[in-house]
Automatic annotation (TrEMBL):
A molecular function GO annotation: RNA binding
Name under which the protein is recorded: ATPase
PIN domain ranges (all copies): 1-115
Lineage: Archaea, Methanobacteriati, Methanobacteriota, Stenosarchaea group, Halobacteria
UniProt keywords, alphabetically: RNA-binding
Family, as annotated: In the N-terminal section; belongs to the PINc/VapC protein family.
InterPro entries reported in the protein's UniProt record: AAA+_ATPase, KH_sf_prok-type, Nucleic_acid_metab_PIN/TRAM, P-loop_NTPase, PIN-like_dom_sf, PIN_dom, T2SS/T4SS_dom
Classification via SMART domains: AAA (SM00382), PINc (SM00670)
Species, as recorded: Natronolimnobius baerhuensis
Coiled coil regions in record: none
Span of domain AAA+ ATPase: 261-450
Region entry Disordered, spans: 527-557
Length: 627
């Protein structure tokens, strides 16, 4: 009797099992080289099925040595083109052809392969894939958890560690005395993936060469292998808290807000702050109040009830999942996690389609979550996409923002003709506006309305932006150094070189009037000699508008550039590795980093080099000033 097994039955280990049962005892087992090639490729890619298949081939070799069967390898290895089309059935066809040529029994556990072989007239033995019961109570990684353990971190040749403690007070600490050997880690890893495949309590969330992510009961387990990682690594995470929305501050207001109509909500916070725990509480609450709730997750690890279906990427794209969900029409969708531009675009599309959306976002401040929408969603649409921001800190609701659009003169500006749509972010608890987002002189700005967000010298966000915009406008006119001093919200003094006065003011004051009208602020133009702080380094702004020190205002190191055939070399005493400004005759030229060798090199022929050479020719002093 001659038997030709395919890849599926070798991986499954059923060839040797069938021989042990006596069915093929004494038969010639003809293993196609195409099967060996598939198993070898999978093993090289770190896919466990390849190793399982190679172990089965070793068992067949042992049975042949014992005289239980005869074993041979037949056919040729598939070429690169055939291997590239394996998913389309090319290698399966090669194996069937060999079985047909030998008039052998074709052994498979692949139902599609069996049906095709039978249709072609082959003698087919279909063995259903073995279903092994998994003792779900004996996963080795579970033994490392206690009631306060959020995650366990295991790695070859390293002592096991865990994150333990209360939310917001986690400690990363050793939980054993001895490092784990590679054989132990390999056993743990195989146990995890086997449990995911064979138990109804788990599934493989992601399976790529070198990385598998498993969802098993309450655990999300990531298994990394070389070459993706430099050793076998297992990270197991589980939620340690199950909360209700009533456990949080502002619960009643938030509940009313969520139930009155579908909302756009961003739940933000630092890693480990309790964002997902809060999202789970929200999901359960709205589901219990007759709303249809779904989730979009990769990986799926939110702990929700069976009435909430958890979706992941469809065809590798969350956009495809969104298209499918729009056919399902849930009332609310929980999107965990919203990180990349594509995620924000999908979130916005679903929200604008009328679906209530709750997104989980990493952010170190509440306002940062909203700012991540800027540039990804049209500014005027942001309040329609997100009208509520909830910031979680140490497991508690720290801040809730209400987001809405109003037409007004932005805070800090006074001219009524500057009224425009402004996104106002209001503290839900106090009812006080804390931020405004609007377009100012063609750029989107986020302006804090409280002093605690101010910059140096308690300068407010409005002041900083206003100074930058005034400086940018004047620099487009003036040739020399420009300095700006804000006197009030509607008045500023601009200091320029004496020979720039007429250019900046313009004929009959027309040019400076145009600038004033555009910016909505009165500007008094003066020379640097009239600036009491000139040369003292106070209130200065760099010539590139970045707010650093400027020409002639900070004492610098006088240097003597060397002009070579290809470079202008500026020797610098000290400041190695630091960023400095290069000035000529008190005017800013450019910013550069001093090399370890203590010099700055500028390639000749560049615009900067030409300007520097002109300054050298005019014998203007060249200085280097720390920025």
């Amino acid at each position: 009797m001659n038997v030709v097994p395919d890849t599926s039955v070798v991986i499954d280990g059923r060839v040797s099992a069938t021989i042990d049962d006596g069915q093929f005892e004494g038969a010639m087992i003809s293993v196609p080289e195409a099967v060996v090639a598939e198993l070898e490729a999978q093993a090289n890619d770190g896919i466990e099925s390849g190793w399982d298949g190679l172990e089965e081939l070793q068992r067949l070799a042992d049975l042949a040595d014992e005289g239980t069967i005869d074993l041979e390898y037949i056919g040729e290895r598939p070429n690169a083109i055939e291997r590239g089309h394996a998913s389309e059935g090319e290698i399966d066809a090669l194996i069937r052809d060999l079985a047909e040529d030998l008039e052998a029994t074709f052994l498979t556990s692949d139902i599609v392969q069996a049906e095709v072989a039978q249709a072609k007239g082959l003698d087919v033995e279909h063995i259903a894939p073995e279903i092994r019961e998994v003792d779900v109570g004996t996963l080795a990684v579970e033994n490392y958890f206690d009631d306060q353990t959020m995650s366990v971190h295991l790695r070859t040749d390293a002592v096991p560690k865990a994150k333990r403690g209360e939310l917001g007070e986690m400690r990363y600490e050793p939980i054993a005395d001895e490092p784990l050997e590679e054989s132990t880690m390999d056993e743990y890893a195989r146990e995890v993936t086997d449990a995911a495949k064979e138990s109804s309590d788990g599934f493989l969330e992601l399976s790529q060469p070198g990385m598998k992510i498993v969802q098993f009961r309450d655990y999300r387990i990531a298994v990394g292998r070389p070459p993706f990682s430099d050793g076998i690594e297992i990270t197991a995470v589980r939620p340690i808290a199950q909360t209700d929305i009533d456990d949080y501050d502002n619960a009643d207001e938030l509940k009313d807000r969520l139930l009155e109509h579908q909302r756009g909500v961003l739940i933000s916070g630092a890693p480990g702050a309790g964002k997902s725990t809060f999202a789970q509480a929200v999901a359960r609450y709205i589901s219990d109040h007759d709303f249809s709730v779904k989730t979009m997750e990769k990986p799926r690890d939110l702990q929700v009830g069976p009435e909430i279906t958890q979706y992941t990427e469809l065809g590798g794209e969350m956009a495809n999942t969104a298209d499918a969900l729009l056919m399902v029409r849930p009332d609310y969708t929980i999107y965990d996690e919203v990180r990349k531009t594509d995620d924000f675009e999908v979130f916005a599309d679903m929200r604008l389609a009328g679906v209530g959306m709750i997104g989980v976002v990493h952010a170190t401040r509440a306002i940062d979550a909203l700012q991540r929408l800027v540039g990804r969603v049209e500014l005027g649409m942001i309040p329609q996409v997100v009208d509520t921001v909830v910031y979680i800190e140490a497991g508690e609701v720290h801040t809730v923002y209400d987001v809405k659009t109003t037409v007004k003169v932005p805070a800090g500006l006074t001219e009524e003709d500057l009224a425009r749509p402004v996104i106002q972010i209001t503290n839900f608890d106090t009812g006080e506006p804390e931020y405004e987002i609007y377009t100012f002189n063609r750029q989107v700005v986020t302006v804090p309305l409280t002093d605690e967000e101010g910059g140096p010298g308690n300068e407010s966000g409005v002041d900083r932006i206003a100074k930058q915009e005034i400086e940018r406008e004047i620099r487009s006119i003036a040739q020399g150094y420009v300095d700006v001093e804000l006197k009030s919200q509607d008045k500023a003094i601009v200091y320029v070189e004496e020979n720039d006065i007429s250019s900046v003011i313009g004929k009959g004051g027309g040019r400076i009037t145009d600038v004033e009208n555009r910016l909505g602020i009165n500007i008094d133009v003066r020379t640097h000699d009239e600036n009491p702080n000139y040369g003292a380094g106070a209130g200065s702004a760099s010539a590139n508008g970045s707010g650093g020190s400027g020409g002639g205002q900070t004492a610098g190191q006088m240097v003597t550039p060397e002009v070579t055939s290809r470079h202008i070399v500026i020797p610098v005493d000290g400041n190695h590795g630091e960023t400095v400004e290069v000035q000529a005759g008190g005017d800013y030229l450019f910013t550069a980093t001093v090399s370890r060798g203590g010099e700055i090199q500028v390639s000749r022929g560049s615009a900067i080099a030409e300007e520097l050479e002109q300054s050298i020719d005019r014998k203007e002093p060249v200085t280097v000033v720390p920025s």
